[in-house]
Amino acid sequence: AVAAAMRLSAFVSALRPALPLLLGLSLGCSLSLLRASWSHSAAEERCLAPGPPAPPARGAPPEAPEGRPGPGHEDFRPRIVPYYRDPNKPYKKVLRTRYIQTELGFHERLFVAVLTSKATLNTLAVAVNKTVAHHFPRLLYFTGLRSAKVPHGMVLVAHGDERPIWLMYETMSYIHQHFGSDYDWFYIMQDDTYAQAEQVKTLVTHLSINQDVYLGRAEEFIGGDEQARYCHGGFGYLLSRSLLLKLHPHLDSCRNEILSVRPDEWLGRCIIDFLGITCVSQLQGQHYHTYELAKNTEPEKEEEEEFQAALAVHPVSDMTLMYRLHKQFSRIQLDRVYQEIQDLQMQIRNLTALTPAGEAGVTWPVGINAPFLPKSRFEVISWDYFTEQHLFSCPDGSPKCELSGASKADVSEIIESAVEQLNRRYQPLLRFSKRQLLNGYRRFDPTRGMEYTLDLLLEAATQKGHSHVLAKRVSLVRPLSKVEIIPMPYVTEATRVQLVLPLTVHDLDFVANFLDMFAMNTLDTHDNALLTLLFIYHPYDAQRVGQVDVFAGVKAMVGELEKRYAEVKIPWISVKTEVPSQVKLMDIVSKKHPVDTLFFLASVWTEINMEFLNRCRMNTISNWQVFFPVHFQEFNPALVYRGEQTASSNTDFLRDGHFDRHSFAEACFYNSDYMTARTKLAADILDRDEVLESMEVFDVFLHYSGLHLFRAVEPGLVQKYTLRSCNPRLSEELYHRCVLSNLEGLASRSHLAMALFEQEQANST
What we know:
The protein is an alpha/beta fold and 765 residues long. It folds into three domains: 100-318, Alpha-Beta Complex (Spore Coat Polysaccharide Biosynthesis Protein SpsA, Chain A); 384-479, Nuclear Transport Factor 2, Chain: A; 497-752, Spore Coat Polysaccharide Biosynthesis Protein SpsA, Chain A (Alpha-Beta Complex), CATH 3.90.550. It contains 22 helices and 27 strands. The strands form eight sheets. Strands 3-2-1-4-9-6 form a six-stranded mixed β-sheet. The chain has a five-stranded mixed β-sheet with strand order 22-21-20-23-26. It has a four-stranded antiparallel β-sheet with strand order 14-17-18-19. β7 and β8 form a beta hairpin. The longest helix is centred in the middle third of the chain and has 34 residues, at 319-352. This is Hexosyltransferase. One of its GO terms (cellular component) is Golgi cisterna membrane. One of its GO terms (molecular function) is glucuronosyl-N-acetylgalactosaminyl-proteoglycan 4-beta-N-acetylgalactosaminyltransferase activity. Belongs to the chondroitin N-acetylgalactosaminyltransferase family.
């Protein structure tokens, strides 16, 4: 018995850790079985009970027929709807919107309307446009009568009548008709109002768009209801989209029934009478602060808290006062930003001390990303050396060039900033003045911005008048600012590309490969691309074309392609010239195509592919941008591989070659843009056609168009090595560029050094 008790005690002690798990499983299984039996019995009773159904319990949602949840029931179950298309109905392609924002029904945030007049359009309205217009996403000016000349950069809507009430009525109708479905908030202001644009934009981000909002400086009606308020027009007011949609059907009634002298009172009475909404100065915890300017006010001396917190200031009597207000509020805002930066830097220091790295983890400047740490020697970012007069890392590859333009302004600004920061730190004990920049270094770090290291020769003066010359090294960072999305016009990949291929006698050996790649990558894939050949005959060859046509073989290959692809036609144009100027050739082609044609000016060594053609379509925008790709030029295989087998793996793609920045042979542009630039060029050179021999299409767009010139490396354009023929009849610059392209396309420095080393070894033996 004792042995049995001991065995039982050992068993219980071994089982004790698992007892809670076993009890939990047993209890859970029992409760689930019990609940299942109750549910089953309740279902049977509901199905088998005779008589009318029992009324639902109080508060329960009504049942729909066949046991489905009725309206208001929240227990929805997903249901898969199989796709079915009626074969008797014609198939209709679904049209998608251009932008996902339109398809999802998103609205823009803020629309701003400025009420002006013919008398103040060229004064106060211009001041508003120069101070705050660039901060708002959309701003329009509304006036009764317009002047003969509208100021540049202003979108003006004239209603044809200067009566204030009529102007307000027409403005509200116009906003509803053209922008009512596109924006969430509408801000109405006068041209004698200064508004803090950033504060107004911040205000609307903190308000809910689900309410009818009439927000501004609330004023009492003269002799009216004490509870009713209208928003004073001089200080601007904010309307929500929902209120504008409800107000629009009543505008005609308001115009006929409400009499008022002031347009803001008329609008306020209209909103109150028909919508029952009064103006408020505070909503959802947000205050609409305003400040009324007194006569002869000096904004620079205004230190009141009410002035500094104001969203709108009124009245502004002249343009100069508007600019002074803008300067003062910009200074106030800048001081706030600097104070916020200092507070954030202090918080970062305090929090970093609690991290595992401790105070050593704080990077300089505090709050800016740490410098980029290269993982290999190939990722090291090099420093560029400069002085106050010269730069020793030039864009054209030369070892030394004069510091000018934006680079000179950048260096001058960074030196001034360094001296200013030193004086701010050491004053009043010391005051520094620059004597000379001894050494300057800068590099661009993509993770943080432009970094500078300056060795300055300074003169330090004490409070007692003593001075001393010393050298001091300072480090500065120009951090990357807020990233902005640049709006671009809409483009599509469905645009037809017209390839233009100029051919000379020296190009005949490469035409077959070009046509094969064109057929494989465009004709076989049914890409929306066409080809036009431009045969350039030398005058001697043109005279003998009846007996011996140098391009007969090319024409035969074109005929074979047209037989293989019955729907394809490849036209050609014959030109006789000794100097094949790119501009003159393009003039001939341009006249034979519509103005909306997208040209791709190609070279015979180009291997056409769909990937590049799509980028040509996307990077070329009519009346906005032209695209000049930088192709990848493979090196001479005889120097690179020296008899070894050529690397063919994908990992070696774009390895044994370079991007040829000296070549401008390839270009994507619209015919209309070329014709516009060419017209300006013709007016400039008059009848001096010899000037065209020293120009390329790139020069035409660079000097005679206001378009964006997009010049970027293009990995989709890969050209095999070939020694190209440089025409000495072209200008000196074009000939020199062609020779440089041939020389740099031979091989890399390491390959050339190895070839020279092997040649010297062979000569020595």
